[in-house]
Design brief:
Oligomer: single chain
Radius of gyration: 15 Å
Low-confidence stretches: none
Largest sheet: none
Shape: elongated
Helix content: 55-70%
């Protein structure tokens, strides 16, 4: 699967149009469409924006390795417990 195909899979997973998906990233639907069709390469800046905005695993987006989404702590309390080695 190409990077463009993975971008499309993310967009489809959220049930978003090209326009709505790109809107959150600050680009138009044409830019997203060209990435999905592999006409334009996925820049590192765009990849990081997609990962940040949609909680996508960077390694999955770039290399196809791992899970599609990053695992986040369920609550802030879980995050603090992990940070301070609490149970």
């Amino acid at each position: 699967m190409t990077q463009g195909e993975r971008v499309k899979e993310i967009r489809k997973n959220f049930g978003m149009t090209l326009e709505k998906f790109g809107e959150k990233l600050g680009v138009g639907k044409t830019a997203i469409s060209k990435i999905e069709r592999n006409e334009n390469t996925l820049t590192d800046q765009m990849a990081k924006a997609i990962c940040h905005e949609y909680n996508v695993n960077y390694d999955w987006l770039i290399c196809g390795e791992g899970e599609m989404f990053s695992v986040l702590p369920q609550t802030v309390l879980d995050e603090l417990c992990k940070q301070y080695n609490c149970d």
